[in-house]
Amino acid sequence: MSAVIISGKELATEKRSYIKERVEQLISSKSVQPTLAVILVGDDPASHSYVKAKKKACEEAGIKCIVEQYPTSLTESELVNRIDDFNKDCAIDGILVQLPLPKHINELAIIEKISPEKDVDGFHPINIGRMMINQETFLPCTPYGILEMIKSLKVSITGKHVVVIGRSNIVGKPVGQLFLKEDATITYCHSKTKNMEEITKRADILIVAVGKPNIITANFVKDGAIVIDVGVNRLENGKLCGDVNFQEVKEVASYITPVPGGVGPMTITMLLQNTLQSASKKANKLSKSST
Ligand code: NAP
């Protein structure tokens, strides 16, 4: 039997309408306008299209989105200065520096300059640390979106074997941590993993975040597994595809995410959620200090 397709697009629409309601409440009851500042450096076409999609999603949810664009020649210290300005500006609830940055700028150093209280991407080492020890924080958007997708299926995660392929700081590593917190058993695979097929075949939930088109075929997947495809790859014909061979794997899996329309829309939704969370926290602090 063919797998049920998990529509990230539909789930994202549902969640965004709830976020919009909460944004409206925050504006009307606390006079706080949730605001996200996005910094885009250089002319990478994919980055430009991601930023455009984020701005559109913010505006549809009633979140103000300020986009600042700079040429590739921007220096690291100029970028740091701009981040500092946003850190100090009380009207800004979230700061996002679109990655990748030009090669002469140290990405990790830049992420560390964003105030952890405004790091709505959830990439700051302090926020990653808070996530590891289960403290309240901004969860990184893609892993957070994946967890929300699985939770929407109403299947139990406890005791499930989750296999994550990929160990990047923004997807692979944190997604495993989020499922560990949900009492799953986690195995990570990466480019040096031997006999990967034997490991992935034992996954109840298989999360693939590699960035290579169609590398996961049906023989990597256990009958009835849930398969989450994070990969976004542009083929020579201009079409987008994931890391999972969708046509083959959907015949084996119980649930599967498509590309496009799967993880991507949920990633942006969780960015809206994190910005709202930051603005709500600020509103609560303001009300406490005025009483
Ligand atoms: P990344 O930093 O390049 O990491 C890729 C990971 O895949 C690395 O850990 C690498 O292993 C592993 N890998 C590479 N070849 C492999 C192989 N043949 N077998 C097993 N593992 C292999 O990428 P990323 O930032 O995590 O992104 C992964 C994909 O997700 C990309 O296509 C990206 O565009 C997409 N993405 C999508 C969203 C979304 O919202 N939809 C968000 C973020 C990323 P090593 O560590 O050993 O090198």
Automatic annotation (TrEMBL):
NADP(+) binds at G166, R167, S168, V232. The keyword Amino-acid biosynthesis applies. GO terms for cellular component: cytosol. Coiled coil: none annotated. It catalyses: (6R)-5,10-methenyltetrahydrofolate + H2O = (6R)-10-formyltetrahydrofolate + H(+); (6R)-5,10-methylene-5,6,7,8-tetrahydrofolate + NADP(+) = (6R)-5,10-methenyltetrahydrofolate + NADPH. PROSITE patterns: THF_DHG_CYH_2 (PS00767). The keyword Lipoprotein does not apply. CDD domains: NAD_bind_m-THF_DH_Cyclohyd (cd01080). Residues 140-282 form the Tetrahydrofolate dehydrogenase/cyclohydrolase NAD(P)-binding domain. It comes from the Bacteria. GO terms for biological process: L-histidine biosynthetic process; methionine biosynthetic process; purine nucleotide biosynthetic process; tetrahydrofolate interconversion. Residues 6-121 form the Tetrahydrofolate dehydrogenase/cyclohydrolase catalytic domain. It holds the Pfam family THF_DHG_CYH_C. Pathway: One-carbon metabolism; tetrahydrofolate interconversion. Its EC number is 1.5.1.5, 3.5.4.9. GO terms for molecular function: methenyltetrahydrofolate cyclohydrolase activity; methylenetetrahydrofolate dehydrogenase (NADP+) activity. Keywords: Amino-acid biosynthesis, Histidine biosynthesis, Hydrolase, Methionine biosynthesis, Multifunctional enzyme, NADP, One-carbon metabolism, Oxidoreductase, Purine biosynthesis. Catalyzes the oxidation of 5,10-methylenetetrahydrofolate to 5,10-methenyltetrahydrofolate and then the hydrolysis of 5,10-methenyltetrahydrofolate to 10-formyltetrahydrofolate. Belongs to the tetrahydrofolate dehydrogenase/cyclohydrolase family. Homodimer. This is Bifunctional protein FolD. It comes from Sutcliffiella cohnii. The gene is folD.
